[in-house]
Amino acid sequence: MIEEKFFKTFRVPAFGLKAYKLNKDNKAENVSAIELPPEVTRTDSKIDTQRLLQQKFGESIINFVNTITDKMPDADLTLLYNNLGTLTTSKKNFNLRNIVFGGSTTGEYSAPKNEIQVQESDYFVTLPHELFHMASSYYRENDKTKYTGFVQFGKGKATLAEGINEGYTQLLTERYFGINEINVYPYEKVVAGNLEVIVGKEKMESLYMNANLNGLVQELKQYADVTAIRQFFTDVDFLSAHLDDVILLPKEKSMITSKMTNVNQFLTGSYMKKINIDFNGAEFDNKRYSGKLATFLAAMVWGIKTTQREYLSESSEKIVKNAYESLLIKKLAEKDEERTQG
Ligand SMILES: [Zn+2]
Predict the structure, then answer these.
(1) What's the mean per-residue pLDDT of the chain?
(2) Looking at the DSSP assignment, which residues form a beta bridge with residue 107?
(3) Per-residue three-class SS string for the chain
(4) Which of 89, 209, 281, 327 supports an S-S bond with 116, CB 3.0-4.6 Å?
(5) The model's pTM
(6) From the CA of 51, how far away is ligand 1's center (Å)?
(7) pLDDT tens profile 78-136
(8) Cα-to-centroid distance, 108 and ligand 1 (Å)
């Protein structure tokens, strides 16, 4: 029996009891298990507006479809079209579950059922987020594997990159639907946003809409090796699960700080490599270079601040600052060396 796994719009917050999972979660998942995305052909290219309007929140679904078909290239909308034909939506009251299990879930999408359920009071924020999960999902019946955005999971497979997937889903929701929700996956959103700066907006959106985690890994291989990429996804997943833990031993706090350091170093290092590639052959422009890097790092400092955890804020600002200074000094030294040689 395969455990049903739902996507939550809101992260489960603040339970010290969760901390016992820290050690268990503290291991890298096997990135080689990432499969090529299935060849999905478009089975449907009409939109049955009448049927969708009969669904709960029908007008909002139509608004979502109109916006996405207008803003995104048609080639990236295969999963959206294929799923729209059978999508069902309904309202659901999550209050009791949130009280019993602790959490703030206000919506979920089930890929096998192709069904969205959202809390009515929050639907204007939650629905587009869940609709992005729908628009980026493919469910393979024979082995019960789910491909959704940057996540793959199924029987015997580890779930990888869920943190990035949630962050990017929320980023797209805010980008295209003018929503600004500082409480929804705030850290994951900043990490996913900086990853997009490295990968490029069009490419990243396309990989997401085609449920192509493997493509994302291939893209990142220009800047980091597979082990580091695997560690990065795993670290973000770990942080996503434990950033809100409140009752932590010093050892557990340092585990979280070290994960965050890894994430910062991965992103900064990859971004530096990207800038070097971009500047190849061009006149080195220190102002432009440091300006770009400063913007990138400022986003990361903001990401850490969103956690509202003092023990992280203090150490990680230092980490980001150090990364910035040491990388810039290194770059300037390289430039000096070239000048002396030249
Ligand atoms: Zn979600």
Answers:
(1) 82
(2) 118
(3) CCCCCCCCCCCCCCCHHHHHHHHHHCCCCCHHHCCCCCCCCCCCCCCCHHHHHHCCCHHHHHHHHHHHHHHCCHHHCHHHHHHHCCCEEEECCCHHHHHHHCCCCCEEEECCCCEEEECHHHHHHHHHHHHHHHHCEEEECCCCEEEECCEEECCCCCCECHHHHHHHHHHHHHHHHCCCCCCCCHHHHHHHHHHHHHHCHHHHHHHHHCCCHHHHHHHHCCCCCHHHHHHHHHHHHHHHHHCCCCCCCHHHHHHHHHHHHHHHHHHHHHHHHHHHHHHCCCCCCHHHHHHHHHHHHHHHHHHHHCCCCHHHHHHHHHHHHHHHHHHHHHHHHHHHHHHHHC
(4) 89
(5) 0.86
(6) 24
(7) 999 999 999 999 988 888 777 776 677 788 999 999 999 998 887 888 999 999 999 99
(8) 7
Q: Which residue has the tokens 């490419």?
A: 203
Mean pLDDT of 134-152: 90
- Predicted confidence (pLDDT) at residue 17 exceeds the cutoff of 50: no
Ligand 1: distance of its center to the CA of 133 in Å? 7
pLDDT over 90 percentage in the chain: 41
Task: For residue 65, report the distance from its CA to the centre of ligand 1, in Å.
Answer: 18
